[in-house]
Amino acid sequence: MNVVRTLMDAARPAVRAKRAVFGPTRPTWTEEFEIIAHVLRLGAKVTTKLPIDVQRRVMEPVARPPFHGSRFEATRVAGVPASWCIPAEERADSVVLYLHGGGYATGSIRSHADLVDRLAYASGGRVLIIDYRLAPEHPFPACLEDSLAVYRALLDMGVPPEKLVVAGDSAGGGLTLSTLFCVRDAGQPLPAGAALISPWADLDSSRPSMFENARWDYVSRANLRDMSRFFCPPEEQQNPLTSPVFGDFSGLPPLLVHVGEVEGLRDDGVAVHERARAAGVASELKVWADMIHAFHVIAAICPQGREAIAEIGAFVRDVTGNGAAELLRSAV
C-alpha cells in the first residue's frame, strides 16, 4: 500500500482542483475515493502492458499486520498452497473457502490478505484462501482442479458442508460458480452458500455495462480479453466452466452477489443473479451505488468496502446457522 499511497498523494492536487471546479466525479465519491479510483485507472493502463510476472509483483501490497488481529497460518491443502486466516476471537464454527480474483493470471493470498482478514472478523469463523495455479503457465482447467481438490479435502477433513461457504471476487467469483457446478454434478455435498464479489462470469466481456462504465472503472474490456486468451482458447470461452453465466444453476445453494453500479462487470453479476433466480435458487443481488470493480479489496480506504464485507460476513453467519448476523453489520 506504500506505493499506492505515494501515487495517491501525487494525484491529490489535480483531483482536488478538479473537484473544486466541477464537483465530485460521482455523487457519492469522497476526495479520497476519487483519488484511488483515478490511481487505479491510470495504473491499470500502465500495468496491463507489462509482462504478466511484473503485473503479479505490482499487485502484491506491502505486508502489514492484519487490521483485526487475525492469525495467518500457511499450509497446503490437497497439495495446493493455502493459508488459514483465523480471527482473533473465533465466534462461529463456519469455514469460508476464498478464491481470489486477478483474471486467472494474477492475484494471490498476499494480495487479498486484507479482505480475508476483514471477512474472518465479519463472519466470526475461519477463512481458507488458496493460491490456485495461474494462467498462462497453467491454463484452464488447472485453477478449477485446485479449487475442487481443496473443497473436497475440506469435506474429508470433517468440515460439515452446512458450515462451509465458498466465496470469491472477479475471476474468483467465476471460479466459485464453476466449482459449485462440478460439486453438484458429481453428487457431492454442496456448501451452505456462496458469496460472489463482482464475478467475471462471461469471458467475452461484452455486456452493456462494460462499455457504459469504461470511464469510471479500472477494469477494461481489452485487459479482460487478454486475460481470457491466457486462460483458455477461444473455443472454450462459452464453456459453462469458464463462463459460468451459461451454466445450469439448478440446485445451487443460496447466493449473495455484490456488484458496483459503475463497474464494467456489473452486468455479469446481474446476469448470474437472474439465471440463478430463474432456476429457483435463492439469490440476493446488491448493486452498490457509484462503486467500481471489487471495491471490497480496497476496504482499508473505502467505507462501502467495509460495509460490504460486513454484509458478506452476516450472510455467512446466516446460511451456516450461527445466528445473530445483524450484530456483525458494523463496519469492519
Class of the largest domain, according to the CATH hierarchy? Alpha Beta
CATH fold-level topology of the largest domain? Rossmann fold
- Rounded Rg: 19 Å
Whole-number mean pLDDT: 93
- The number of helical elements comes to 10
Spell out the helices and strands N to C.
HHHEEEHEHEHEHHEHEH
Kindly estimate the percentage of residues that lie in beta strands according to DSSP: 5-15%
Describe the protein in words:
By secondary structure, the protein is α/β, with parallel strands linked by helices. It folds into two domains: 1-47, no CATH class; 67-328, Alpha/Beta hydrolase fold, catalytic domain (Rossmann fold, 3-Layer(aba) Sandwich), CATH 3.40.50. It contains ten helices and eight strands. The chain has an eight-stranded mixed beta sheet with strand order 1-2-4-3-5-6-7-8, sandwiched between helices. Helix 4 (113-123) packs across helix 10 (303-319) and helix 5 crosses helix 6 (171-185). The radius of gyration is 19 Å and the shape is globular. The two termini are 18 Å apart.
Short précis:
This protein is 40% helix and 14% strand.
Comma- or semicolon-separated keywords:
332 residues; alpha/beta; Rossmann fold; 2 domains; eight-stranded mixed β-sheet; 10 helices
